[in-house]
Amino acid sequence: MNEGVIGRIASTGQASVCSDTESDWSSIQGNELTARKDIHGFNGQPIMYQHETLGVIAQYNRIPTPEQTPEWLRIFADHIGAAIVNARAPSRKLRH
Predict the structure, then answer these.
(1) 8 Å CB contact between 28 and 18
(2) pTM
(3) What is the pLDDT of residues 8-35, one digit of tens each?
(4) What residues does each domain of the chain span?
(5) Of 21, 23, 40, 96, which residue is most buried, by most CB within 10 angstroms?
(6) Max CA separation in the chain (angstroms)
C-alpha cells in the first residue's frame, strides 16, 4: 500500500499537497500521470474516521494548487469518511 503518493497518504494518514510540481516534484515523484498530463499541482487527503484510514481522495491540478484547496478537500474527505461509516452501520447491527 505504500507505493506512490496515494499509497503514502493511505499508509501514514498524512495529507500531501504540492502547489507546483516543477518546484516540489519530489512529493509526487513516481507518478507517471504528472509527466503525461500537464500537471502543476496535487492535493491528496486521507479519508479517515476515528484514526482509521478508509481511503484517499486526490486532486491533480493543471494549475498550481490554490491556497484554499487543501482545506476544502479535507472537508470533503471528512464527510466521505462519515458517510462510509454510516453506510456500514446497518450491516454491523445485523451481525450483532
Answers:
(1) yes
(2) 0.79
(3) 999 999 999 888 755 555 656 555 666 6
(4) 4-95
(5) 21
(6) 53
Cell numbers for 45, please give them.
487527503
**Rounded to whole angstroms, how far apart are CA atoms 59 and 64?**
11
Rounded CA-CA distance 53/61 in Å is 24
d(CA 64, CA 49): 29
Q: Which top CATH class is 4-95?
A: alpha beta
CA distances from 71 to 33, 49, 59, 93, 95 (A): 24, 17, 13, 34, 37
CB 62 within 8 Å of CB 39: yes
Of 36, 30, 33, 41, nearest in space to 3 by CA: 30
Nearest-10 Cα torsion for 89, 93, 95, 96: 140
pLDDT tens for each residue of 50-65: 999 999 999 988 888 8
